[in-house]
């Protein structure tokens, strides 16, 4: 039996930073990781996929070169092994950076192995008992595999295994039309594959307003991606070298199938019952506004608590836990204003409420919409697809939410995100003098166009 002041299970986007802060504050900490330091983001999520998105953007610019007056000699092609290796090396470097950093922290013991609970104060790793009065769970999530007939018998890909591909699929069929499905759809189309997206819901990116979903579908269809929605249940079988997919009465033949139907929290092999920790029906650990579970002294951070599904929300969970524990603050998850981006090209930057959610709240609203074709910078770059939208409370002037689907949208949205965090009303932003020529310079004009709905 080894005793610690704190045990952190999982080295994702909250665990390492919390373990380091606790150790630097003089606590004796064990950080347990069963696979790779950095978790999903570094090894199978944001970092490799955004590296692939950058390769796909380069491919697209080569395909469009003549439109910009650039003459290329002969046909271009994509070296998929090099594309894959580039993503793997970005991951490798980030992981190595974490290894070096964590390895040099006094008071921090890094243990490799699967952790499971024996009771609320005891964790077993590689047969050894570890005890601590405080335990932090940061175990993340994994791809959800639906129970469709025949799926288990075909060599389907997930967002993790597709990162190993070093050849171009002839026809990639993607099941699920949300973040993962759409990002991979566009990158593989740009690499040169035939791509079909199958979404069981009525529209892709269905958490967004319908006008945003429609615009995204338009952008992807214009690049030759076949999008099928409302497909219902699917059936899979092998047909020679092909995979046969029966979707909504139609049969498709794919060389590869990517399953992108959401993620399942890694809480089922932790033996949480032994600690008395409760989960919801989908396996997410139930936490309060300060991330404590129903058991005192046990916290859950990141994707496994179901309160966020992004790297920045997991990292923010670390910030909340650390501030409350070490800095005498009282920070709460409900104070977080959620922003995120969908990294298709052009990207979607989002913050706060959708228009649909704002309307459902019953407040008096102001809404403004402006097409990217009116944005000088977008015209200059010949990237005028998309639009920006802002929703504000008509009585208080409070900005409730915004979306920028367009070139630079993932960055430009931060001006609005910052204003929302500063609790600034839209009136204050109207007279800002932004830099020309940027996408952000349209924000005051967007605000000037606010109309009651
Ligand atoms: C393809 C893809 C692209 C993404 N792109 C983005 C993006 O662009 N932006 C963004 O914000 N988010 C993105 N995400 C989401 C983001 O990666 C996650 O939200 C984030 O990594 C969650 O961090 P976490 O700390 O909760 O868990 P994780 O990063 O998943 O870490 C959990 C860790 O716990 C370990 N673990 C699990 N169980 C145990 C156990 N019993 N014992 C010991 N260790 C255990 C795991 O091995 C893992 O290392 C993407 C995700 C995917 C799949
Ligand atoms: N840019 C980013 O920040 C980014 C990128 C990738 C992933 N992520 C994170 O990863 C998580 C998982 O992403 P995701 O796209 O897999 O999940 P998701 O939950 O966002 O979307 C899953 C999609 O699959 C569809 N679907 C679900 N079950 C289905 C079925 N049986 N058949 C057909 N369609 C089905 C859903 O209707 C939905 O559109 C997200 O929550 C997100 O936070 C973030």
UniProtKB/TrEMBL annotation:
Location of the FAD/NAD(P)-binding domain: 5-314
One Pfam family hit: Pyr_redox_2
Gene3D superfamilies hit by this protein: 3.30.390.30, FAD/NAD(P)-binding domain
Keywords assigned: Disulfide bond, FAD, Flavoprotein, NADP, Oxidoreductase, Pyruvate, Redox-active center
Domain (Pyridine nucleotide-disulphide oxidoreductase dimerisation): residue spans on this chain: 341-445
Domain of life (superkingdom): Bacteria
Cofactor(s) needed: FAD
Protein family according to the UniProt entry: Belongs to the class-I pyridine nucleotide-disulfide oxidoreductase family.
Name listed for the protein in its UniProt record: Pyruvate/2-oxoglutarate dehydrogenase complex dihydrolipoamide dehydrogenase (E3) component
Lineage: Bacteria, Pseudomonadati, Pseudomonadota, Alphaproteobacteria, Hyphomicrobiales
């Amino acid at each position: 039996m080894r005793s610690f002041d704190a045990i952190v299970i999982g080295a994702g986007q909250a665990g390492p930073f919390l373990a380091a802060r606790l150790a630097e504050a003089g606590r004796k900490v064990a950080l347990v990781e069963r696979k790779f330091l950095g978790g999903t983001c570094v090894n199978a999520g944001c970092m490799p996929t955004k590296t692939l998105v950058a390769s796909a953007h380069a491919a697209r610019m080569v395909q469009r070169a003549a439109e910009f007056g650039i003459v290329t000699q002969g046909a271009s092609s994509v070296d998929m092994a090099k594309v894959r290796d580039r993503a793997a090396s970005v991951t490798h470097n980030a992981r190595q950076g974490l290894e070096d950093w964590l390895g040099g922290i006094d008071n921090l013991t890094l243990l490799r192995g699967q952790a499971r609970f024996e009771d609320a104060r005891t964790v077993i790793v590689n047969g050894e008992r570890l005890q601590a009065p405080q335990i932090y769970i940061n175990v993340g999530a994994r791809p959800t595999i639906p129970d469709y007939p025949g799926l288990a018998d075909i060599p389907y890909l997930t967002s993790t295994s597709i990162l190993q591909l070093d050849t171009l699929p002839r026809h990639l069929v993607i099941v699920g039309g949300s973040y993962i499905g759409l990002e991979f759809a566009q990158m593989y189309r740009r690499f040169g594959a035939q791509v079909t997206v199958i979404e069981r819901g009525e529209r892709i990116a269905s958490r967004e307003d319908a006008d945003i979903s429609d615009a995204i579908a338009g952008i992807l269809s214009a690049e030759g991606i076949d999008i099928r929605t409302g497909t219902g249940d699917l059936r899979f079988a092998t047909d020679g070298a092909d995979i046969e997919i029966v979707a909504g009465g139609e049969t498709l033949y794919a060389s590869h199938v990517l399953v992108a139907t959401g993620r399942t929290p890694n809480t089922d092999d932790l033996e949480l019952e032994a600690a008395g920790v409760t989960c919801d029906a989908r396996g997410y650990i139930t936490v309060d506004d300060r991330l404590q579970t129903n058991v005192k002294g046990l916290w859950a951070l990141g994707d496994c608590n179901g309160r966020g599904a992004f790297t920045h929300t997991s990292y923010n969970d670390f910030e909340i836990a650390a501030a409350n524990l070490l800095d005498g603050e009282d920070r709460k998850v409900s104070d977080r204003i959620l922003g995120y981006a969908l990294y298709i090209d052009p990207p979607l930057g989002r913050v706060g409420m959708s228009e649909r959610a704002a309307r459902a709240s019953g407040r008096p609203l102001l809404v403004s919409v402006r097409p990217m074709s009116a944005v000088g910078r977008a015209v200059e770059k010949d990237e005028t697809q998309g639009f920006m939208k802002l929703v504000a409370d008509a009585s208080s002037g409070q900005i409730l939410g915004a979306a920028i689907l367009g070139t630079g949208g993932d960055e430009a949205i931060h001006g609005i995100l910052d204003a929302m965090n500063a609790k600034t009303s839209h009136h204050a932003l109207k007279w800002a003098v932004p830099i020309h020529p940027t996408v952000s310079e349209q924000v005051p004009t967007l605000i000037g166009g606010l109309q009651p709905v």
